[in-house]
Amino acid sequence: MAKPILAILTDSIRYDNQHPLKYFKQFQVKHFYNNAPYGDLSKSDLNPPAGGAIKWDNFDALEKKLLNLKPDILQGSEPYASKTALRICLLTMKIARKLSIPYIFPMFENRPVKDRLGVITGSILKKILANYTKNAALIFYLNDGAKRNLLEVSVDPKKLKRELYGIWGVDIGLFRPLTKKVTPQGCCWKGQILFVGRLDEAKGIPYLLDAWNSIKSDFQDIEMVFIGKGELEDKVKGEQIKRVSWMKTQDLPAYFAHALFTVYPSVTLKKWEEQVGTVNLQSLSCGVPVITTKSGAIPEYISDKVGILVPERNSKALAQAMKKLLKNPKLRQKLGDAGRKLALEKYDAAKNIERIEKILLGLL
Q1: One GO molecular function term (predicted)?
Q2: What domains does the chain contain, in order, with CATH numbers?
């Protein structure tokens, strides 16, 4: 008997949202994507056992492909994300109506839409979201802010499910503690602190640099490693600072496992705030504690049992937290062990997808 087909419609594709699709067992998954900007996917990632990825170049072609495929469930985008995502939402409703199939979508956006886009645009998008949710069979939200945005348009609470849908979680086999520390190529320091992400204001780079520069003279055998690219990359330089250009997700675990801890000091901006903080989850899965901020949805995923949370835009608090972990290896071990346990319990992509599949089967 053929497996039911889940068609996923997205603008962009990356390792974090494509690779875990291999864990789908009850559905054949077809992931329709417009672009792959990160260059971090192999041929096997694009064609996992559960189903493959299909590139679309324009909406007319995408519509024809979907009508020919005749999926059993359609997953659209969220209208607050972008102009392309909004058009995907409209197409999702159209295809679902033509094929008489249920559609679902995940909600990540946690900034108030009127704050992000203004009163007029925000009001229009809220009306579109209200209509979109009215006809949706199910909506997965990933943080409290997304739930608030949904409830603002009077969505039926019975349609809401909190799951790591779209992010899925962490590959706990890939991101795992190493019994024998492996030093990544180019690393020669006794100890390292790690940052992974965009090198820009949103990720708190100015505050992290200020914090590290204020204490590094006390820890001359420690290096701060930045992995990523961005508008502030030219600022990431100096003694005891190393920058590694953006790398494939598959290559990150060795850096996490070698680190004493990870620092991820995101800040809230007018148009953006952290919706999950995947880097934090990856670090925990490697048994490496995190220092992060009380920003966006981060406190919903990280507690003081697995890391240290500090206020946003506070270089002094960041520096104090870094000194605390640098001077206390027992605390690092305690937090790291608790982080790995939390990752196994809540952030295992395979377990999360198994649970999500049961929910989706209930829609058929």
Answers
A1: glycosyltransferase activity
A2: 5-169+348-361 (3.40.50.2000), 191-346 (3.40.50.2000)
